[in-house]
Design goal:
single chain, alpha+beta, 3 domains
Length: about 500
């Protein structure tokens, strides 16, 4: 490895790792802000939160990696230009592409790694993240008793405390309504002067130790006159009441429940699922066509279906009624004379109530057919949109790698042109460019989801727009362009004024 290669790669690795770490920290903070309501008050263990953040970090890599490549490229080549090292290299006869060659190989390695990450690791991380966040969102809040309020989250009990200590473990004036027996006719009320909580069995159960209290409960099996049950009062100095807290534990769902979602598949699985969905859509359309052919003899399906085409729709043509033959179940079937309705009267010869019944029957048939068509239209639209989502995810696996490569060819020449290092100008330039890239990506994806654009054009729109920008900046930088040189534009302005004068 030559000195130039070591110098360029060593200059790039530090800013790249730093900017990637900073981007990940900001994105994780944004994630926590988004899900703070689902995480707070659930009594989650630290390792559960750490696991969730780990899977969330894997989902944030597709945003952090392109931003880190863009920002570090501008910083490194801006630093080389500001310290005149880039000028010295160019004076030695090295072109910009020769200087960039080690980093081009490095970014190519990063892009290939990003593809394998997006195709194999990202779906698994997505599946585990969705499973874990689903379990956390369905997790009950931790047991917290609030003064002068009833707590009803423990099944079969309603608890109220009037006072509690600052530590929150000792309480005074405790009232407990016990309905845990499941018998609506049995009532038991417990009052205690004081008490404290103790968790047992690793938090799966809890003992409520009560002091100086009374228990009021009905006596079952005996009934007084008027249908009134007698009750008994029990006084105690010390008593313990057990609560089952197993429902408060985090119940982990099997991750395989989520593996059929398109975000949890790799490219091969997406292609297979899309093919199955298209065949199913083709069968549904053919079923609709056959249904109409059976209900309306004057129609018959024409042409062949193309199950691979997302908008393949059967065409119906009108046959002459005189030439239309009745549909038979098999070749051996025939119409018996007794099955023919000889009392059929054409509509033009009907009068009075008979004509009214015929019109009502025709209107009902038309309404039913319209509802059937509209229902199937919504079903087919939903199925086509679901197929579009699979195509979007298939292309998404490739766009990350290409975006990393394109943004490098934008950032490196731009840094060589700006020739400003540090974090000031590079951050401003990279932020503007990344926002532009992100808006293009999101807009293309939204239009593809809305079926305005084909998924191919929607997912690759940002790459197709930014690729010429990268080529232009590389060409201008390779020719020592003064694209962002303020003095160049001032000189150009004064030359024009002098020529006019």
């Amino acid at each position: 490895m030559g000195k130039l290669t070591r110098l360029v790669i060593a200059s790039y690795l530090g800013p790249f790792i730093l900017t990637f770490a900073i981007a990940m920290v900001f994105l994780i903070l944004q994630f926590l802000w988004k899900y703070v309501d689902d995480l707070m008050g659930k009594g989650l263990e630290w390792y559960v939160v750490a696991e969730l953040l780990f899977y969330a970090s894997a989902n944030l890599v597709p945003m952090a990696l392109p931003l880190a490549i863009l920002l570090s490229s501008i910083m490194v080549f801006g630093n080389l230009g500001e310290s005149s090292e880039l000028t010295a290299m160019r004076s030695a006869g090295l072109s910009l592409m020769r200087i960039m060659r080690p980093l081009i190989i490095f970014i190519a390695f990063i892009s290939i790694s990003a593809f394998f990450f997006a195709n194999y690791l990202w779906p698994v991380a997505n599946m585990k993240f969705r499973s874990l966040i689903f379990d956390i969102q369905n997790q009950k809040p931790a047991l917290t008793l609030t003064e002068r309020r009833f707590y009803n989250d423990i099944p079969g009990f309603s608890i109220r405390v009037m006072e509690k200590t600052k530590e929150g473990s000792h309480f005074k004036d405790i009232l407990i309504y016990d309905h845990s027996t499941g018998n609506v006719n049995f009532k038991r009320d417990i009052w205690a002067e004081s008490g404290n909580l103790e968790k047992i069995n690793g938090g799966k159960g809890m003992l409520f130790h009560l002091n100086n209290g009374k228990i009021y409960e009905e006596v079952q099996g005996r009934m007084m006159k008027g249908g009134i049950f007698p009750y008994q009062k029990i006084q105690f100095k010390k008593a313990s009441l057990y609560f089952d807290l197993s429902s408060f534990q985090l119940q982990r769902t099997d991750v395989q429940v989520f593996n059929t979602h398109y975000e949890m598949m790799n490219m091969a699985q997406l292609a297979s699922a899309e093919d199955s969905l298209r065949m199913n859509l083709y069968e549904k359309r053919k079923e609709m066509s056959d249904n109409f052919a059976r209900r309306f003899l004057i129609f018959r399906p024409v042409g062949n279906f193309d199950p691979t085409h997302p908008v393949a729709v059967p065409t119906l043509t009108l046959n002459k009624v005189a030439n239309q033959k009745p549909i038979l179940k098999s070749a051996n079937d025939s119409i018996q004379p007794s099955s023919v309705n000889h009392s059929f009267v054409p509509f033009r010869e009907q009068h009075g109530e008979q004509r009214t019944r015929t019109l009502a029957s025709a209107q009902s048939m038309a309404r039913n057919s319209l509802e059937y068509i509209l229902g199937r239209k919504e079903e087919f639209t939903g199925r086509e949109e679901f197929i579009q989502r699979h195509r979007l995810e298939w292309h998404r696996k490739l766009t990350l790698s290409v975006a990393c490569f394109i943004l490098f060819f934008i950032g490196a020449p731009l840094g060589a042109i700006i020739r400003k290092g540090g974090l000031g100008t590079p951050i401003v330039a990279s932020t503007i460019l990344f926002i532009f890239y992100y808006i293009l990506s999101i807009s293309g994806e939204k239009m593809a989801k809305a079926n305005v654009l084909d998924p191919f054009w929607g997912m690759w729109m940002s790459s197709f727009i930014l690729f010429p920008v990268g080529l232009y900046l590389t060409w201008k930088s390779n020719n020592d362009s003064a694209l962002f040189d303020k003095d160049f534009y001032l000189r150009l302005f004064w030359i024009k004024r002098l020529r006019k004068s």
